Structure formats: structure tokens, C-alpha cells
């Protein structure tokens, strides 16, 4: 029997679909439209384009020159978007060795030296000597229970005055930020809830029916 005739081939459309499932697109800034292929690791779940676009519209007046911490980096979607839009520095943290390698290789391919990569558990990283960040991205795996611990550790010197904290989680996940963090924006997209908070804000805001804070 001809071996070539019995070999099953994956259709081109299916191969492309698999590839796109592990690919993200930078949506703004100097690398706009650039596509990045990230490792096929099940827990990686990049923030959807729609969510990232909304988030960075919120942050647009504050992103240029900011120092950012991408604490559950995964695909690096949030950190790379921040760098593309003018952040001064992004610190990527993820516990997966393959992700760390991918992040370093991607930064090298982008010829970007304004970032550091740490292959480490988020809680362990935050027990280092702290340095303050202007913007912190928290997008842990949905099944993770690390948010309460991480939020507490961030309070120990990791946040600049009036820092921004972005939290993305599964819809319905209880969000119990420290009392000094004030909700600035909160929205839902499908099964994802995403929230932008800030430290040092006066307690004058409230969440409207549209789930955005109004003054």
C-alpha cells in the first residue's frame, strides 16, 4: 500500500485556525498590527482585542513614560501593548519557563530593551525588595486563587502614588480590592470582567448602571 496515500493531512484552514489560536495582535502604537506567536500552553488566555482596546483607551493619558508590572504575563499581551504605546519600562513576571523564553525572544525580535523578564511565582516575586510601578496588570488564570494575596503584597511598596491597577477575571468572581483602591472603570465582555482601579483617589466616584464610574 502506498504510504503517501494513507497519510492524513490537516487541512490548510484547520492549520491556520490552530496557529491563530496561539497568536495575538498588537492593536496600537509603534508595533500596531504586529502578530506574536506565543506557546501553546493551556493556561495562557490573552486579553481579547476588544478588552485591550478599551483598557488602553482608559489609560491613554497615562501610559507614555509609565513603569508597568505585568504580573501574570502569559502571552504578554498587556505588557507588549503598553510598550508599543510608549511605556518607559515593563517588568514581565510568569512562573512558566517556556513563557519566559518566549517573552525574551519576542523582546529581542522587537529590538526592545525597555523590559525585564522574571520566571517566578507572582507571590514569591512580590516578596523581593519592592520598587514602585505606575501601572500594574493583573490577569491571572481564571482558576487561580492568587488575587487576594497578590493585592495585599502589592500594598507593600510596589505601587506609586496614584498608581493604576488593572484586574481581569472570570465574570462573577468576587472582587475585594484593598480599601485604598478606588474603582475607576468596570466592564464585562462575554465571560470576562475587567476593572481599572486607582490608589489615592478621593472617594467621590460611584459605579453607574453602565458599570463605569461617574463623578
Question: What can you see in these coordinates?
Answer:
The chain is an alpha/beta fold and 215 residues long. It has one domain (12-214): Vaccinia Virus protein VP39 (Rossmann fold). It is 29% helix and 28% strand. It contains seven helices and eleven strands. It has helices spanning 3-6, 12-21, 49-63, 77-84, 97-109, 122-125, 147-154; strands at residues 23-25, 35-37, 67-70, 89-94, 115-119, 133-138, 159-170, 181-189, 192-199, 206-207, 213-214. The strands form three sheets. A seven-stranded mixed sheet has the order 5-4-3-6-7-9-8, covered by helices on one side. The chain has a two-stranded antiparallel ribbon with strand order 1-2. Strands 10-11 form a two-stranded antiparallel sheet. The chain starts with a helix and ends with a strand.
CATH class: Alpha Beta
Q: What global shape is seen?
A: globular
Strands of the widest sheet, in order across it, are 5-4-3-6-7-9-8
Q: Structurally, how many domains make up the residues?
A: 1
Report the strand count.
Answer: 11
CATH superfamily: Vaccinia Virus protein VP39
How do the helices and strands follow one another from N- to C-terminus? HHEEHEHEHEHEHEEEEE
Please tag this protein with its features.
215 residues, two-stranded antiparallel sheet, disordered N terminus, 7 helices, Rossmann fold, alpha/beta, disordered C terminus
Summarize the helices and strands and which ones pair or pack.
Blueprint: H1 3-6, H2 12-21, E1 23-25, E2 35-37, H3 49-63, E3 67-70, H4 77-84, E4 89-94, H5 97-109, E5 115-119, H6 122-125, E6 133-138, H7 147-154, E7 159-170, E8 181-189, E9 192-199, E10 206-207, E11 213-214
Parallel strand pairs: 3-4, 3-6, 4-5, 6-7
Antiparallel strand pairs: 1-2, 7-9, 8-9, 10-11
Amino acid at each position: 500500500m502506498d504510504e503517501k496515500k494513507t497519510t492524513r493531512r490537516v487541512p490548510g484552514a484547520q492549520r491556520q485556525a490552530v496557529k491563530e489560536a496561539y497568536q495575538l495582535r498588537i492593536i496600537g502604537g509603534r508595533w500596531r498590527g504586529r502578530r506574536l506567536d506565543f506557546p501553546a500552553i493551556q493556561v495562557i488566555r490573552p486579553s481579547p482585542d476588544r478588552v485591550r482596546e478599551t483598557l488602553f483607551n482608559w489609560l491613554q493619558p497615562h501610559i507614555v513614560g509609565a513603569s508597568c508590572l505585568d504580573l501574570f504575563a502569559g502571552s504578554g499581551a498587556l505588557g507588549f501593548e503598553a510598550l508599543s504605546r510608549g511605556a518607559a519600562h515593563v517588568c514581565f513576571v510568569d512562573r512558566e519557563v517556556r513563557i519566559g523564553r518566549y517573552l525574551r525572544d519576542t523582546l529581542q525580535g522587537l529590538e526592545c530593551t525597555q523590559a525585564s523578564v522574571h520566571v517566578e511565582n507572582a507571590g514569591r516575586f512580590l516578596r523581593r525588595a519592592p520598587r514602585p510601578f505606575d501601572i500594574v496588570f493583573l490577569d491571572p488564570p481564571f482558576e487561580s486563587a492568587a488575587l487576594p494575596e497578590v493585592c495585599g503584597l502589592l500594598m507593600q511598596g510596589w505601587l506609586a502614588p496614584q498608581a493604576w491597577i488593572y484586574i481581569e477575571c472570570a465574570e462573577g468572581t468576587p472582587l475585594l480590592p484593598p480599601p485604598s483602591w478606588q474603582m475607576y472603570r468596570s466592564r464585562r465582555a462575554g465571560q470576562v470582567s475587567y476593572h481599572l482601579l486607582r490608589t489615592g483617589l478621593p472617594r467621590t466616584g460611584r459605579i453607574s448602571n453602565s458599570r463605569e464610574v461617574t463623578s
